[in-house]
Amino acid sequence: MRKSLMLYLLILAVLMNLFTYAFYSQEVKFEQNRYEKTTKKLRDSINLVTTKLADADYFSLEHNENAQNYFDNSASGGKVILFEKLIPVVTEKLLDFNTNPKGNPYTGQDQIGPNKFIINKVKILNHRWIIADYSNGELWGEVLLKYFVDNDDNITFEVNQTWLYQK
Prior knowledge:
167 residues, 20% strand
C-alpha cells in the first residue's frame, strides 16, 4: 500500500511539473507576442504623431528653408539675420503691444466693452506672414499680419485681415 501511494504521489508530481512547464512556456510566448504587438502599435502611433506634427509645422519659418534664406543677405554684402533668434524677438515685440491701454492695435479690433483685445498666440508662417489668435475674454478672433524687418533690425507690423468669431 505504501509503495502504491508513493507511486501515485510520484506520478502526480510528474504531471504537476509537466503542466506547470507547459503553462509557463505558453505564458512566455504569450507575453512575447503581446510585447511585440504593443511595440508595433506604439511605433505606428509615434510615426503617425510625427507625420501630423510635420504636417502642422509645414507652414512655419522653422521648417521653410526658402523663407529662412530670405534673411541671408550675405551674398549681396548685407547681414545675416538668424531665424532662430528672430522668431522670439518678433513674437515678443508683437505681444508687447498687449500693454496698450486700448488693446493690441494689431488685432484689427477696437475695444468692445470694458475688456481690451490682446493677442494670445502667435505663429510665424514665413519671412512675411504671421497668424495670431486674440481675445478680450469674451470674444475670440484671428488675424493675419505682415511683418517687416529693416536693415536696422526694426520690426514693423501691418494688419492684412482679421476675423472676429460670433459668440
